[in-house]
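User: ok so my PI wants both of these folded by tonight, can you help

Assistant: No problem, let's get them done. Here's the first:
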Amino acid sequence: MTTRPERGGDPPPRPGAGTGPVTAPVPGGPVPADAEAGATPPRDRAQYAVCAFLALVGVLVIVDAARTGHAISAADAIGPKPVPILLGVLLLIVATIYTVDVARGGTGEPEAGEDVDLTTPIDWRTVLLLIGAFGVNAVLIDRLGWVISGTLLFWGSAFALGNRHHVRNLLIAVALSLATFYTFAIGLGVNLPAGVLQGIL
């Protein structure tokens, strides 16, 4: 007895139709995609070093806190020991949980570059120009002062990064160096080297 399709409908699928032949995996052959998806990810044993570092820091914090004296005053009723000890205990707990996670195969998700082609080679010209700008600033800051060396630093960095508006960049660099000079001197009380402009600034 055969089943007739309903009027206007498709015939019912026959058993095994559309599923294709079932092939057994060949030893040494390619692994099916579903088998790869269910495979256990490899353990990142390097993460155990991070776990050990966290545990070591926790132990050091607890030991250092335990050696602190009992300095209790009216303004500080609990003293300086409980908070560091609590932080050390929390570090040990985090290290333990992290170790268990790594032992179970947990791994961090690799960070992909945002809008960056990771296959692009390093632009050594830009890197060397930036190193040169910082080097010139380090050499000239005591002789010429921060305002001049900082101007060269800001202008040189903009040039190294591809900006070719030289006059505008020079004006911005002078403004930034003057702003940082007076911000450190007035706001933070730190006098940057004035150099040849000593007595003018």
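One down. Here's the second:
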Amino acid sequence: MELGSFVKNKRYLAGWYGYFALADTPTPFLRLDDSLRRRLRMCLWKQWKLPKIKLKRLISLEVPKEKAYEWGNSRKKWRISNSPVLNKTLNLKSWRNKKLKSLVYRYNHFRHT
């Protein structure tokens, strides 16, 4: 995913949770965090476009070749974005490595300071 889109998302989300962190409601942050990560997984899936690129990227994410071939040949973007394969490989840790922080993390940070 392009760095520019991450920067835009980070700025937008920083303002959003800065405003709404005053409320004592962690559940909407959990739900929004989950749906945001799912949307980002779908965007990555769309960017990979060709099945051979999907296969290569899944293998680079340490998915076994059989599963990578099985899932890489699917064209169902929204359904795949919530698949066990992408959920395990593009999890919260992988998004943190790409400098995208969790909404729940930010919410807890604002609530405790």
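The chain has a mean pLDDT of 80. DSSP finds eight helices and no strands in the chain. Good luck tonight!
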